[in-house]
Amino acid sequence: MINKKELWIVAAISLTFSAYAAPQKSITRTFNFKLPQIIEQADNTCRVELEDTIPNNIPGEPILPQFGASLNLPDGYEVEAVTLLRDKIQTILLTSQVEWGQLPFKPGDPPLLCDPDPLVYLARELYPANNALQWRCDPTDGSTLFSLSFAPLQYNPLEKTLLCSASVTAHITLTEKARAAIDPIQGLDLSASPLNPEERCDYLIISTSNLIAQATPPLTLPACSPPANNQVLLPSCSQSSGLMTTTQAWINQRVSAAFYRMHMRPGASNIC
Length: 272
Fold this sequence. Notes:
Layout: E1 6-10, E2 24-32, E3 37-40, E4 45-49, E5 54-55, E6 65-73, E7 77-93, E8 97-98, H1 118-121, E9 134-140, E10 143-150, E11 153-156, E12 161-176, E13 203-207, H2 209-212, E14 231-233, H3 245-254, H4 256-261, E15 265-266
Parallel strand pairs: 1-13, 4-8, 13-14, 14-15
Antiparallel strand pairs: 2-12, 3-4, 5-6, 6-10, 7-12, 9-10, 11-12
């Protein structure tokens, strides 16, 4: 029996995100608004209307105008945070409460009435809060569409006052999208690595740590299909737990240069 020299390389491969601090940039947009129109109603409530807005309708909560805007994000960036800055605020004293949203009902059915939410109408806090907003990002035709929605007006139910912002500035903080995993091999000098052994080997065997821990050299190669000399043995996915196809492709790509320096050629044999 011919004794063969074997060189074992443990491939400890993981996909991790780089721990660098992603550069940030921001987008600022300012929206201007006119004063709202207050419409008194027969049920001793008032309706608030504002140009270029639509009313929200949350059951039991004040119906206030809602403004929406959208823009395309720069390529390679995603939204990290959005803040609002309200400016040039004017206070309007109301004579009645702002109407509240009702429950939805089917056409032809009697309306489903609900009472005002006491957590809102008996609270001292403004409705909505200063930085209350909704935003989302959607991919569209190769770019990312950012959509923003907020209420330009704020209501104080206890004092029956309406705070009207003549301008609202949205500050959108962006960050670079997470980059792919850092390649642990790319750019490294392999001249002093086990891929360049001082003594020439007959086989270069590459494996994962969970497989190599159970193997005791010298390795008994499969009797059914012994590989030709100067071949590289790669564990197959079906016979090596934890080794995925992407891992094999990664190994083949990264050590191809070492194959030829060692006068070997990649082989397709399996370790059983």
